[in-house]
Amino acid sequence: MGRAIAHLGQLEAAPSRGVVLPDGRSAFLVRVHGRVSAFINRCPHQRVPLNRPEGSFLEAGGELIQCGMHGALFLPESGECVFGPCQGRFLEPVAISIDTEGNIHLAGE
Predict the structure, then answer these.
(1) Which residue range forms the structural domain that includes residue 71?
(2) 75 has pLDDT over 80
(3) CA-based angle 67:60:68, to the nearest 5?
(4) pLDDT tens for residues 26-63?
(5) String of b and e for 36-52 (b: at least 16 CB within 10 Å)?
(6) 30: closest CA among 76, 84, 67?
(7) CATH code of the domain covering residue 101
(8) What are phi and psi of 89, to 5 degrees?
């Protein structure tokens, strides 16, 4: 496996975090109901980063991804927008794998 982009432990205190991929693209990880998902940090509506100024990617209830620019809501399982101006569109997924030590890698690396 290649270099880890994060560790599961980093998603315990704060269930979402931004990461920089080896190719320099900005992405983020979310952990909802024990499942970790990763997406490119770009809203399909205005192509802006999703995170709010404090760095969070989840709405207050911690169940959905929320765009900090205009409040669109996305399912963490699929990245589908379920509320807002980009409803029906999807975040760009990043395939990840988690090793036995909790390190999160890009899938295939």
Answers:
(1) 6-106
(2) yes
(3) 20
(4) 999 999 999 999 999 999 988 889 987 777 899 999 99
(5) bbbbbbbbbbeeebbbe
(6) 76
(7) 2.102.10.10
(8) -95, 170
